[in-house]
Each structure stands twice: as structure tokens, then as C-alpha cells.
Amino acid sequence: MPRDAALREERLQKKAQAQRSNAFAREEVLLRTRSEAEQRNLTRERAYIDAELKQKQMEISAANEIEKQRIEADMRTQISHIEATERREAEFVLERAKEREFVAQEMQSRLQLEKELAEERQKNLRLEYEAKTRRLEWELREKSSKVAHNQRV
């Protein structure tokens, strides 16, 4: 009987060993399954984080492009304003130059007219002087001839 008990004990030990082995195997499978599940979760989380990162990078890139275009548009607007201001200033300078030229021409014309007027006045004064001289000479001859006639008579 002790042999039976020993066999039974051996069988019980083997059975316990098998159960322990099965438990270890189940535990290993369970741990492996959990590890694989965690790995999949981590992979999924990584993919999600990568997707979010790409989305944020695209948003930042789009925002940067929009800002760049806004800055370029502002610069073009400022350049247009500067060019328009320069054109207005150039037109103003040109208009002022035309006005000065017109005034200079008008002054030149006025000076010419005043010169002609002065020449005309001088001519008229000379003619008046000559006429007065001739009249005086005539009066003088008339008086001389009356005096000479009175002296003869």
C-alpha cells in the first residue's frame, strides 16, 4: 500500500505539476495576450499621436502660408500706396513746373509789352516834341516875318 500511496502521491504531484504548468502556460498566454493588446494600444495611440502631429503641422503650415500671403498682400498694398504717392508728388512737381513756366512766359510777355509800350511812348514823345518844335519854329518864323514886315513898313 505504501506503494499505492506513493504512486498516488506521485500522480498527485504530477497532476499538481501539470496544473501548475497549465497555470503557468495560461498565465504566459494571458501575459502574452495582454502584452500584445498593450502593444496594439500603444501602436494605435502612436498612430493617433502621429496623425494629430501631422494635423497640427499642416495647420501650422497653412497658418504660416496664410500669414506669408497676408504680409505679401500688405507689402503690395504699401508699395502701391507709395507708388501712388510718388506719382501724385511727381504730378504736383510737374504741375508746379508748368505753372512756373506759364508765369515766366506771362512775365516775359508782360515785359515785352511794357518794353513796346515804353518804346511807343518814347516815339510819341519824340513826335510830340518834333511837332511842338515845328510849331514853335513856324510861330517864330511868323513872328519874325511880322516883325520884319513891321520894320519895313
What would the keywords be for this entry?
single chain; about 150 residues; 1 helix; about 0% strand
State the gist of this model:
The protein is an all-alpha fold and 153 residues long. It is 99% helix and 0% strand. It has one domain.
Order of helices and strands: H
| C-alpha-based Rg, rounded | 64 Å
* Termini Cα gap: 220 Å
Number of domains: 1
Helix content: over 70%
Quote the beta fraction: under 5%
Stretches with pLDDT under 50, minimum 5 residues = none
Structural class designation: mainly alpha
Q: Helix tally?
A: 1
Strand segment count: 0
Name the shape in a single word: rod-shaped
In this structure, how is the largest beta sheet organized?
Answer: none
Mean pLDDT: 92
Folded structure, characterized:
There is one protein chain. With 153 residues, this protein is mainly alpha-helical. The protein has one domain (1-113). The protein is rod-shaped. The mean pLDDT is 92. It is built from one helix and no strands.
Please specify the SSE layout and strand pairing:
Blueprint (H helix, E strand, L loop, with lengths): L1 H151 L1
